[in-house]
Specification:
The complex is a heterodimer of chains A (249) and B (426). Chain A contains 9 helices and 9 strands. With 249 residues, chain A is of the alpha/beta class. Chain B is built from 19 helices and 8 strands. Classes of the chains: A alpha/beta (249), B alpha/beta (426).
Chain lengths: 249, 426
């Protein structure tokens, strides 16, 4: 049997297919203004027996695919255990939200917290800041890693932080140091969220921001805990949804 | 509904905006309440009350005024209805549950003010609430800092604002403060109404309110059954109507509904299938028409079986013991009753979390959702301790913070669904 999971996130749509307990296919695409269309495109030609949807667009697609849905939280809980058998703490920094999740020894969901309603300190925040500084996302992470010290960024609101960054740059601050300051700001906030929910042990780091090398090393420094990033941190939710599909009988 | 335009005009209501409000409210009511399945027959009375919430009930109130009865409005469960009834007054809880007139409110209040307070201003400034406009006296109370400072700004906006002080500790002096404040309130009511509070009138007031609360206690207990005989939304609605309906007729209607629910329980009939995830909502009050969170919960495969809230058991769970043969002794009894109320403005406030635990046990709840209004410091700060204490007692708890807007419905739904998934795996 082939089980599919589709994760319609705010910035990216992800698809994963599982067969005989192995990940056999994964695809992703930018959500754009038409998440439903993108989802259909991703699923084109993909064969599966059952599918489950997750992500903020899960209820949107539910009517179209006539499939069950599962919250992102549960999808991450299941998906994380697929990549890391003993995972007990998850940090997911996605396009528009941040989640901290704790699991018990058997892999059941214990506690979770999410950021507030705005995109403060999420992937979207990093994107906007990279653009302000004239970097691509890849350059942005490398620039931050190359800095010896960090400028302090006080605001976590995307709008306020943008003006803060602009004013730092006009005052002649080093671009790389500002980049590091931005990374530090979001990681310190996310680490705080994680500490409230899952205070110790290895961190399973997922979501688009986990692709960022600077974010990964800062998370290790900030928490003093080992950080594990799965081969593709963006598809954890989709894999989790596929696993849920394999259980729904 | 009959045409009440003239009545509303005479009260100074902004007819055009008020019509828009009623149309929106009617639509929301249809979508949220009438669309529910397996509702008890007895809800028809409350549907009728809601369809006439600004119509027939206001007419009754206006008619009472014509007969010389005074209308006393309030925003808090610390204002004793017994005392109002003892001078033959009409007590009404005032609307503060919708995101209306917030722009006007924000001209007078900081943006970082809770929705309840903003709504209280919004309804008044927008001339949208016929209850507020019918009041001879509006009673404010020094509960949280937000409300107590807001009443200073509210005073010039209304005809007669009377502010009652409240203690913040459950100490002997605290109790004394409450009693003296109630004594002063009696003097105010007597002056307004020209009527004396007597042993007879006070006993009668206590009996009426006790009967009303007894009916609510009966309703609360019936919700322990699985399947739940009534939805949380409907039960919340009854708790909301509690504040503005005629108390005797209300009591009668709740008791009739409870007769029906008792039969349902016997027949193992309910609104959701047996085994549906059972939730208690604890925290800030939900004033009419604030139905957002219960609607999200009950459309996520869960049923609400209790409300630990001022619009819920915190407002209804104690009765006043009718003991003594002087007004002074009855005043003591009323003080004792209200001094139990475990609002988060009290410090420390252990009885609240203890009661949530008791409710979880009595009502066979799977988990608790703690609801705080954004910027409501007492409840938000207390929520951390509540969560810790409940989790320690193996009662899964989810803390949510929101306001009256609809923009966070998606985020809330994700959290609620995930929480329900956690409960199902237990």
């Amino acid at each position: 049997m082939r089980y599919a999971g589709i994760d319609i996130g705010s910035r990216t749509v992800k698809l994963a297919v599982i067969e005989d307990g192995r990940l056999v296919l994964s695809r992703k695409s930018i959500t754009s203004h038409n998440p439903l269309g993108i989802a259909h495109e991703l699923m084109e030609g993909v064969e599966y027996d059952r599918v489950t949807a997750t992500g903020y667009g899960r209820h949107l697609i539910k009517g179209h695919l006539d499939c069950p849905v599962v919250s992102e939280i549960t999808a991450f809980v299941r998906g994380s255990r697929f990549f890391s058998e003993d995972c007990e703490s998850i940090l997911d920094i996605g396009g528009q939200d941040t989640k901290a999740i704790s699991l018990d020894k058997d892999g059941n969901l214990c506690k979770f917290e999410m950021n507030d309603r705005c995109a403060a300190g999420t992937g979207r925040f990093l994107e906007v800041m990279a653009t302000v500084l004239g970097f691509t996302l890849e350059e942005f992470s490398l620039a931050a890693l190359s800095a010896k010290r960090a400028e302090k960024i006080n605001s976590m609101c995307t709008v306020f932080a943008e003006s803060e960054v602009v004013s730092l740059v006009t005052q002649g601050a080093d671009r790389n140091e500002v980049a590091l300051g931005i990374h530090k700001a979001i990681i310190s906030r996310a680490a705080g969220l994680l500490k409230r929910v899952a205070p110790s042990g290895k961190i399973f780091f997922a979501g688009g921001v986990a692709l960022n090398g600077c974010a990964r090393s800062l998370l290790e420094q900030e928490t003093g805990r080992p950080v594990f990033v799965p081969p593709d941190p963006q598809i954890v939710g989709a894999v989790g949804a596929a696993l849920v599909a394999s259980e729904n009988i | 509904m009959a045409d009440y335009t003239e009545m509303w005009k005479s009260l100074g209501i902004d007819i055009e905006n008020h019509n828009a409000l009623l149309a929106g409210l009617g639509q929301a009511y249809t979508d949220i309440f009438l669309s529910q399945k397996n509702r008890p027959e007895g809800m028809k009375y409350f549907d009728f009350v809601m369809s006439e919430v600004h119509g027939l009930r206001i007419k009754e109130i206006v008619d009472s005024k014509a007969q010389g009865r005074k209308v006393i409005g309030s925003y808090c469960v610390f204002v004793p209805e017994e005392l109002v009834l003892a001078v033959d007054g009409v007590a009404v809880g005032l609307c503060a549950g919708a995101e209306l007139g917030f722009e006007a409110a924000e001209a007078l209040l900081p943006r970082n003010t809770c929705s309840l307070i903003k709504s209280m201003f919004g309804f008044k400034l927008g001339k949208l609430c016929p209850y507020v406009e019918s009041c001879d006296v509006i009673v404010g109370e020094n509960t949280c800092d937000g409300k107590k400072k807001a009443y200073e700004i509210f005073r010039p906006l209304v005809k007669d604002l009377y502010v009652m002080d409240l203690p913040q500790t459950k100490s002997e002096t605290g109790r004394l403060v409450l009693k003296e404040e109630y004594r002063k309130f009696i003097a105010k009511l007597e002056k307004e109404s020209g009527k004396k509070v007597t042993v007879h009138s006070l006993k009668k007031g206590i009996e009426i309110v006790n009967a009303k609360r007894k009916a609510m206690i009966r309703l609360a207990a019936l919700r322990a059954a699985d399947p739940a005989p009534i939805s949380g939304l409907d039960a919340l609605l009854i708790n909301q109507v509690f504040f503005h309906d005629d108390p005797v007729r209300f009591t009668d209607s709740v008791n009739k509904l409870c007769d029906e629910l008792e039969q349902r329980v016997k027949d193992h009939k309910g609104v959701f299938p047996k085994g549906t995830t059972r939730i208690i909502v604890s925290g800030c009050p939900m004033a009419v028409p604030n139905w957002k969170l219960p609607m999200l919960i009950e459309t996520s495969n869960a049923v609400i079986v209790g409300e630990e809230s001022c619009v819920g058991e915190r407002g209804t769970r104690w009765l006043t013991e009718i003991k003594g043969n002087t007004v002074e002794e009855l005043l003591d009894a009323i003080t004792d009753r209200y001094f139990n109320v475990d609002c988060a403005v009290f410090t420390p406030n252990p009885s609240r979390v203890n009661y949530v635990k008791e409710m979880a046990k009595k009502l066979h709840a799977d988990g608790v959702i703690h609801y705080s209004l954004q910027f409501c410091q007492p409840y938000i700060i207390e929520s951390g301790q509540v969560e810790k204490e409940l989790e320690k007692s193996h009662i899964p708890t989810l803390r949510l913070e929101t306001d009256y807007s609809q923009e966070d419905a998606g985020q809330l739904k994700t959290r609620i669904e995930a929480f329900n998934e956690r409960l199902k795996r237990k």
